[in-house]
Structures are given as C-alpha cells and as structure tokens.
Amino acid sequence: WRQPGIKRTKTVCTYCGVGCSFEMWTQDRKILKVQPTPDAPANGISTCIKGKFAWDFVNSEKRLTTPLIRENGQFREASWDEALDLVARRLMNVRDIHGPQSVGFIGSSKASNEEAYLTQKIARLIIGTNSVDNSSRYCQNPATKGLTRTVGYGGDAGTIKDIEQAEVVVLVGSNTAENHPVIASRIKSSQKLHGQKLVVFDPRKHEMAERANLFMRPNASTDLIWASALSRYMFDNDLADYEFLERWVNNIDEYRESLAPFTLDFAEQKTGIPKQQLIEAAELIGRAKSVCLLWAMGITQHSHGSDTSTALSNLLLVTGNYGKPGTGGYPMRGHNNVQGASDFGCLRNMYPGYEKVTDEDARKRWAKGWGVKPEQLSLEEGWGNFLMVQAAADDKLKAMYIIGEETAFSDANTHNVHSAFESLDFMVVQDIFLSRTAEFADVVLPACPSVEKDGTFVNTERRIQRFYQVLEPLGDSRPDWRILKDLAARMGHDWGYTHPSEIMAECASISPLFAGVSYERLEGWKSLLWPVAADGTDTPLLYTDGFPTDDGKASLFVLEWQEPLEAADDEYDFMLDNGRLLEHFQGSNQTGRSQGIWDQVPGSFVEVSPELAAERNIQDGTWVRITSRRDSHEFPALVTDRVAGKTLYLPIHFGKPGVNGLTGEHTDPVVHTPAYKETAVKLKVL
Ligand code: SF4
After folding, report:
1. To the nearest 10°, the Cα dihedral for 430, 432, 433, 437?
2. Is ligand 1 within 6 A of the CB of residue 635?
3. Does the CB atom of residue 48 touch ligand 1 within 6 A?
4. Is residue 490 classed exposed, middle or buried when 0-12, 13-18 and 19+ CB atoms within 10 A define those classes?
5. What are the TM regions of this chain, as residue ranges (predicted)?
6. In this predicted structure, what is the pLDDT of residue 2?
7. How far, in Å, from the CA of 415 to the mean position of ligand 1?
8. Domain for residue 534, yes or no?
C-alpha cells in the first residue's frame, strides 16, 4: 500500500445498523479493498459480504452527476444555480400560498447526522413545519414507542458486547444472520465459547433458528400473547425479579392484574406454540442471570407492533433485565444511520435529542440556539412519512422534499403512493441515482454517497462514529449537507457552515443528549454512545442508575391483544411474509449496481413450504402468481422448509412495483408504521 497513489481511509459501512467501520484502500477512484482492523469499536476485524464487496455502485455509470429539471415531462440537465434557485422559489411559494403545513420533508437514513440535522432545521426554521421524518417510520418506530412507554429511551439498552456476554439471547422476528450478520457472528461465537443459550421466536426457520436451543414458530400476529403469557408465568412461578421491580418499576399491581387472560392454555391456542415449549422458554429466561432480547421487523411491521414491542420490554422489566451488563432490549436498526436520522431530529414530533416539539421550554432553547424568536417554531406536531403521502393524496400536502429515500418503492401499497406523488404541485428528490422515487420529481439534485464526504453516523448501539472522505465527488454531485446549506442560503438563511463538524458543534451546544459530542472526541476510531455529558462521558449501558423519568423509575404498561387488521380468509388464504436477503439491501439501488453481488442473487423468487409444494405440485422454478387485495405479481418458486404451511416469503429487493405493490395501507394506529407483514394473498400455479 506504500505504492504512490494508494490511500487508506477510515469509513463506516453504508448498509446495516451494525455500524462496521474499516479502512478503504483506494487508488484514484478505484476501490482496491476494504480492510477491517481490531480498532473498529463495533465490529473489530469482522464485516459481511456487503461491507466488503458492495461498493461498485460508487463508480456506477448510472450515478447522477448533474442537477435535473423536469420540462414538458422530460428531465433536462441544469446548473446548480438554476436548480437551487428554482427549488428555493417554489418551496417558499407553496408555503406562502398554502401555509407551512403544505410542505413535507423526508430525510435520509443513509445520510449523515449533520445532514439529518440540516433537513429538520430547514423544515422547522425556514418553512415552519414539523412534517419531517425518516425511514424509521417504516421499520423501528413501533420498537421505539414500546421502549419509551416502559424504560424511557427508544435506543438499544446496551452494546454488542452486552449481547455477546448475555447468558440467554432471545431473537424475535429478526433474521439476524442475514440482516445484521456481524451481530449474528458474535452470538454464534458466544454459543461456542461460553455456552450462551439462544431462544428464537419466528415464523421463518432462518439460520439462527437452526442454531437455537429453542425455536418456536408463532402464528402470525400473536407475539404479544406469548410475551405476556411468559410475563404472567414469571409472576405465577416466583421467577419475577421482585427486588428489581420494587426498586425500579412503577405500576406492578395493575400490570400483573392485566395479565389474567394470558394463561399458557390461551397462549398455546392462539400462538400455536405447544405449552411445554412456552414453559421451557419461560424457565430459560426467568432463571438466567442476564438476558438480551433482540427484535426487528418481524415484530414492528404489524398493525400492533408498538404494543408487541411494549410487551417484550415489559417481559424484560418483570425479569429484571435492564441496567446490568448483558441485559436489555435491542431493536435492530436496519439502515446504517436510521438511528442517527431520528436522533438528529428527522421526526415529526421531536427536535434533535428527543425533545418534544410541543414542549414550550424545548422550543425556547432551540429558538435561542438558532437565533430566532420562539414563535417562529411550530408547537404543532407534523405528519410522518405515511401520513404525508396520505395528505398529498388528499390535496393537503402540496410539496415534498425527499432525500435518499425510495418512498415510491418502500411505502406500503405503492399504487397509492405513486398517484399521491403525481398529485403534488412540486417535488424535489436528492439522491445518488435516478431512483424509482426520483422519477416522480420536478427537480433532482445529485448527491454524494458517504465515501465522498465527511460526517458521522449512529449505529444500532447508539454509537456515534466519524467517517472520512475517501474519494472526490463524482462529476458535479455534492454532499447533502452542502446542498442543504446552499438551499437555506437561497431561502434567506445563510448559516455559513464550512464543514460538518460545525453543524455537530451547533447541535451539541443546544441538545443536552449530545452535549459532549465533538469531532475531536470522535477522531479516528474513537466513538461516543449517547447520552454524552458535556465533559465527554458517554453511556455504553443505559439505566445503570435508574430510568430517564421524573422519579427515575420504569413503568410496566398494560396491554390487550388485538386481532391483526389483515388476516388470511377463505379467498386470500396465505400470509405473505417478506424481508431482506444477506446479499442485498432494500430496493437494491446500491447492491444491484455491485456486479459481484448481483451475480450471486440476480432476481426474485417466492419461498413456498414443502407441504404446499407437495399439495400443489410445485417445484423449484415453477412460476406462481401471488395476488393480494391490491395487485398480482408472478415469481418463480423456491421450495424450502424455511417457511411452513401457508406462509410464503418474498424478498423485498426486486422489481419495479416490488413487494409493496401487494401490501396494504393498514398501519399501527399509534405510530403509523405500515403492517407490511400482514398481507393476505392467494396463490395460483402457472
Ligand atoms: Fe457490518 Fe452491516 Fe455493513 Fe455487513 S452490512 S459490513 S454487518 S454494517
């Protein structure tokens, strides 16, 4: 590497929320290799196939390299001055005519913390709306709600090291080996090295299910029932941690009474899990010294994902599994910076650092920090992603600004999303590719991927890490923070930032959660886990001295089980599960442009169970038509016992309409996360 022209630069993976960091070796624009080092705080010397090999997209010929403006239905190239002038003028014009609530912003879970911060600052300060959101609405908001209802913070309770050292790990609705491969590898090592026990609840027999000490396949949308039945079992069998409960937890009696319906018999009948297995799981969890419970979209993407997430956190409280090493609740963050996009304010109801927009004191402090009058900041909560799209369809939202998100592919029932986008007066998309969403835009602004800029990301552990510029921006593309800063200046707010470190410094000076965060403290391989005190002390493990509530106590939250909003019936008699594959990511905009990855998995398929295959004479490669209440698509079948009975599984990465041509708009009523996993379909063999 000492050859002239070869450079090594620290960066952070742009894919999942594990937050692997490594050195990237480059020569000019050529990425020679990715090399992990023992200094990397989240991953050490581990990475997965995506972090190691899925970088071709950076030099793809399909990258956007110049701004585009739609004229007579076609895009034409434009200068930055022309494009930014047009965007500034049109957004202000829509706001002046229709009011601040007529403009909505979707920030990117792949952009940096500083870019998330600027996105919400433009929305709140310049436009005057809190309608700003990010893709956590589609995945982890229900988990965040479950945690904030019970223990206070919405982030993971501890670190990957805590997961490694737990006596028992419980995985619920999380295909960890494919979606968070490095965390899965830590669990596999802990199984071997210190006999860690693994309990898996999942409809799909994925790799971690095969490695589990106990694997249970609950019926669709019944997880709240087994979780509550396990909590009841703990109280009934003297396995509840009364010392912890009395010292740290409120609402014990009311919660315990609310568990009356959740008998083991009821749980067996509804979930389909044999009673004896539920007892085994309860005994393993109840008698362990330390339990980490990890969950993902198998829980959250349901019509009652917030309640089920709450039930999981209740179970951890009942068994005293918070605030000690090797314990806690861990919603697995999907995108590399979905945690940071929320932490730094791309949320409809929170300033950066999770301060409510409805809180007068928070408003005063943010207004002072930004040098404006408090009245300039709205006290009204805005719309989240899903509701923005609905509002556009209802002609209440007139303009949208979308940064690096594939809303036209990722939101549920994309048919409705597309017609909502077509009805907008003005739409801007800022992205590295002409994505499916950008095709609806009036102006497209070419942005840079993470390797062409400086910034910070937050991983699933709440760990803030720096990434450094590896390459020069391609063509005339620009870092998102610079585009946003230049746009703000054209709307009358010249903030004068010259580097992302100044944006972070401003946020740290206003937000107590990030008080001690600075680029100096994040230099090189250093990292900080929020909350970070002004003296730079960070918090790897939450709740060691109590909970962030008025009396320092957590709360058990009373729940009732409710039927899912969409279930199988006589006509639509299958449930369509869906999710990621190891090799790809989301709409495959990046992995699909990395040749080595595409060669491995070049297209879609639908998994069918061996029972169904025998009944309908389906073999690998047999084409089947899947029809939901929304639409119909055809796929080759893959016969596998990863799925059972009348459950099908479809990867989410492929096709123009993708799986969301089939999913519906039924959402969790608390946070409006679409119930992607509750999609009833019928199947026809072609
Ligand atoms: Fe690590 Fe996730 Fe990137 Fe794989 S995709 S290298 S596990 S951050």
Report:
1. -30
2. no
3. yes
4. middle
5. none
6. 63
7. 32
8. no
Instruction: Say if residue 420 is in the same domain as residue 292.
Output: no
Conformation bin of residue 195: beta by default, left when phi > 0, alpha when psi is -120 to 50: left
Containing domain of residue 245, as a range? 141-332
545 in a domain, yes or no?
A: no
Kind of pairing, strands 21-27 and 6-12? antiparallel
CATH number assigned to the domain comprising residue 14: 2.20.25.90
Domain-located, residue 533: no
Residues 366-375 have pLDDT tens digits of 999 999 999 9
Q: Which residues of the chain have pLDDT under 70?
A: 1-2, 587-588, 656-657
Domain co-membership, 465 together with 357: yes
| Same-domain status, 364 and 446 | yes
Query: Rounded CA gap, 342 and 338, in Å?
Result: 7
User: What CA–CA distance (Å, rounded) separates 302 from 307?
Assistant: 10
Whether residues 10 and 134 fall in one domain: no
Indicate the DSSP class of residue 218.
P
pTM: 0.96
ipTM of the complex: 0.99
Q: Are strands 68-71 and 74-77 parallel, antiparallel or unpaired?
A: antiparallel
Residue nearest to atom 2 of ligand 1 (CA): 16
What radius of gyration, in Å, describes the C-alpha atoms of the chain? 24
Instruction: Determine the length of the chain.
Output: 686
> Do 149 and 292 lie in a common domain?
yes
Domains contained in the chain, number: 4
Cβ atoms 606, 637 nearer than 8 A: yes
| Helix spans in 445-545 (H) | 480-490, 500-510
Is there an atom of ligand 1 within 6 Å of 47 CB?
Answer: yes
